Amino acid sequence: MKKVIATITALVMGGSLAACGKTSSSSESAVSNPGDKTIGIAMPAQNLERWNSDGEFLKNKFEEAGYNVILTYSDNNATKQNNDVIGLISKDVDLLLIAAVDGKELSKTLDDAKAKNIPVVSYDRLIMGTEAITYYVSFDNATVGKLQGEYIKEQLQLDDTSGPYNIEFVGGDLADNNARYFFNGAYDTLVNYIDSGKLNVRSGKTTFEQVATTDWLPENAKKDMEKNLNANYPSGTQLDAVICSNDSTALGVTQAIDSTYNGSNQPIITGQDGDEENLRNIVDGKQAMTVYKNLNDLTLVTFEVCKTILEGNVPAAGLVDSLPMEVTYDTGSYNNGKKYVQSYLLVPYVITKDNLQLLVETDLYKWNDDGKYLSKVK
Q1: 275-308: per-residue pLDDT in tens?
Q2: What dotted CATH number matches 2-139+294-348?
Q3: Domain range annotation of the chain
Q4: 188-206, pLDDT tens digit by residue?
Q5: Are the beta carbons of 237 and 166 closer than 8 angstroms?
Q6: What is the pLDDT of residue 18?
Q7: Would 2-139+294-348 and 141-272 be classified into the same CATH topology?
Q8: How many CB atoms lie within 10 A of CB 268?
Q9: Are 174 and 209 in contact (CB under 8 A)?
Q10: CB–CB of 91/40 below 8 Å?
Q11: How does DSSP assign 173-222, residue by residue?
Q12: Topology of domain 141-272, CATH
């Protein structure tokens, strides 16, 4: 955790980290003229707290370093994002940084980027079906789901009690490749208990396709959970846990529990991201935990990877040694259907009501005046 907290201080006060493997002639020339280079950033949607924050942080970081930035948002519309990327390629940007709406929709367009020798960095969501991807920067997404599954295992004491317990899964959007990793990480952690009957999925929905939530939207998660509750949890039937892949789906599930659930208990609800409203729900006992991914760490690692490329150098494994946060350089886990993509994977961690102070120590959150709830530092 100390390494995580050190990230902000080290990068803000010390400026950019030294890129590995530089030669003085190439890097000094590139660094002295960053204004000659333009980065095209394509984000999925501005109306979701997560992507708006990431986009603005990255834009500001690159501009502070002297680069030109074109930032686009695509309203969670894959066709619009494809057109946005076509536009960025036509402007001959020097690098594309893309968080894909649909990881499969950009493959042909990015082949044009490859033909023009424009490096492409896949941000947080792996872009599928193209050899154009230079690097992938994200968190260890299977671990996100694994942490959620392990939390349920511990809270229900699955190894020490007889059960059975009722559990449901709520996944992310079908088009988001990360969503499948989240689901698989959680399901694989708990599948033995499901197979033995200690965990019972009353809806029968045990595949990612069955539990996916369109666009990750709370209203869609709420609607799906209300249907589930009405169909499978009548007359006070107890629901013990709901694994929600992220905080927006957890928010919708919490709303459905409030409006529709007739059981006497509060189900254990998981999440991911550390959104403000969800942190309030954690304090109030409506949500049990969230898997926190320090998004400033993600953006800062992404900035260093991109800057190294723009300076004409190769980040590779050596860059990890210069980073003050925990990052793994991985070349054999993420295959996009065309190749194994060189990946920088950060480590997430669990946040509950009992360790909210860890968020404050990142300098990204602060206690409100009431000393009870947290807000993000603007």
Answers
A1: 999 999 999 999 999 999 998 899 999 999 999 9
A2: 3.40.50.2300
A3: 2-139+294-348, 141-272
A4: 999 999 999 999 999 999 9
A5: yes
A6: 35
A7: yes
A8: 19
A9: yes
A10: yes
A11: -TT-HHHHHHHHHHHHHHHHHHHHTSEE-TT---SHHHH--GGG-HHHHH
A12: Rossmann fold (3.40.50)
